[in-house]
Amino acid sequence: MINVVDLVQHYGVRPVLRNVNLTVNRGELVVLLGPNGMGKTTLLAAMAGVLAPQKGYVEIDGRRRRSSPENELAIRKRVIYLPDHPWLPIMRTGREFLLSVGRLYGSDVDRVIDHVGRLLDLFELTGHGDSPIRSYSNGQQKKIAICAALVTEAPVMLLDEPFSGGLDPAGLLALKRVLQRLASSQQVTIVLTSPIADLVESLAHRVAIVIDGEIAAFDTPENLRRVTGKSGPLEEVLEALMHSRTSESVARYFEGRTP
Prior knowledge:
By secondary structure, the protein is α/β, with parallel strands linked by helices. 40% of the residues lie in helices and 23% in strands. It folds into 2 domains: 1-78 and 155-221, 3-Layer(aba) Sandwich (Rossmann fold); 86-154, no CATH class. It is globular, with a radius of gyration of 19 Å.
């Protein structure tokens, strides 16, 4: 469903992505993990067509992004991209916003109205659905943004840090269960970023570890355990792959010395 080929992206003279190759199968849920500033968000934005790579390309369902207006329009009808800090029409009510997004993606009016009601109920926003978004808390604004992504019913979802932004435990649980169900039974292809390994371990079919703009590893959580020889939580596996110096740095911190 998603094919990233020899992708190179840089800002000015600073390279961010270096010849990245990645294939995501239909109905697969892939999590991009890695330290801050290593290229996860840039890679997701390139998949979403927000960025035009300096080299390489991205294909969605056999169509190349940014290759022609026709291809790009066809892709956009099938893909939803949710950035970490999405724009929201704060003067509109949550219900109005969701209805507009659902209609933009071509759903029947009655279907959208029903779907919006179920989403507001799922994320405990029913009592706020007819209030302007400016009156929402940070966590509620995050929830309405997630609802906007889900109401599209797009077969490809690109989600940047969907579990951050002040979601409460109920919101976190609801989002995890919905994404699991969409990927497993609805054949929705999902790529998301997260800084917290243990939060997404139960979700991921495969994990792509991004370090210094390159894919350092791309496999199932269990296979990553075999490679590292770690049998504990995924956090320990990632520590071996990404943060091998963290324990040493913590020890130096408490000893009061620098390298």
